[in-house]
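[audit] Reproducing an earlier prediction to check determinism. Same input, same settings, fresh worker. If the tokens differ from the archived copy the diff job will pick it up downstream; this log only records the rerun itself.
[audit] input (351 residues):
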Amino acid sequence: MNGWLDTLKSYLGITSGEGKVSADKKPDAVLTKQPIVRVKTKQENPKEIKIVKELTDNQIQINEQRKKYITETKNSDYTVKKGDTISDIAEKFGVEVRSILILNGINYENRNKLKIGQVLKIPPTKKISGVKNLADVAKSMGVSEDFIKRLKRIEDGAKLKENQFHNTPYKDDAGVLTIGVGHVLKAGEPKQLTNEQVCALLAKDLLKMEDNLKAYLGEKTYNDLPQPLKEALLDITFNKGLDIIDKTEGLKYCLKEGKWEAAINKFTHVKSMKTGEEMSGLCKRRLLDISVACKMYNGKIPQSNINTAQQIYDKGIAFLRKKDNFANILPGFNKDVESYFGKGIIKLTTK
């Protein structure tokens, strides 16, 4: 009856009794007391949006559209000469300091320790052209036009309409000389801009912010971010520079590990870079950033993110109360916050 089985054993070279464990004999693994290895699996938040491993058709289309506005030019290596600084070299090639440092494996803290004769790899130079309006700014950056309009509004305040721009220098709330949409005016830069030039300058500034974020996080990590989170990080960097993200403990880790909810809860920096004081205007700016990032949840904002936003709102109100015209500016503050989140998400103070 078992003839076919015996024939198979003979063919495989198995003698009778092999492959069995008798009652008085244990497997080799047990006899040698090999430890059982338990692999600790990574626990995931079921509500967390997972990292997208492949580009969607929409993202491919966005990237192709950006190529119509952005050109890249490859750069040769550069040999450091006497008197060179990393800032001078970056300006010479029209690239960002951090991009050079990351490409060459140099820590930011050692940026001023270049040696004569040192050879540096230089990242490609990117240039934006064909930007004539806010819609073009959005397309060139691969972001939503709504985000660009919100960024402009919070930079301009309620002073200007959507189609109006700061064509000449003005001082922002922190007393910094500014032109266009939040562009800090540097020595030698033009003090009279057309609307098209303002929009082109905004696109150029945002591209620099994106390059800094890619250098800091790694291009793959940045590309894997949900689009609303990219937009929020662009605004934070545009508003306060990359140092804010770098100095926010745990934010980089959360972004690289795909812990989006936790990352959004770290959008809490509301101190002025100039004075070190916390400001109501920066509270409102962080509320904008949280609301932009939370668009990834399609209306189902995690409670922890709502709690963080509420805390920032309450802090902003506390700062506003110190002002003599609190009653006059409160309605406008509340109107903006409600426009970010919708009605009923944030509990607003009315008096």
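[audit] rerun output stored. Observation attached for the diff report: Residues 127 and 137 are 13 Å apart (CA to CA).
[audit] end
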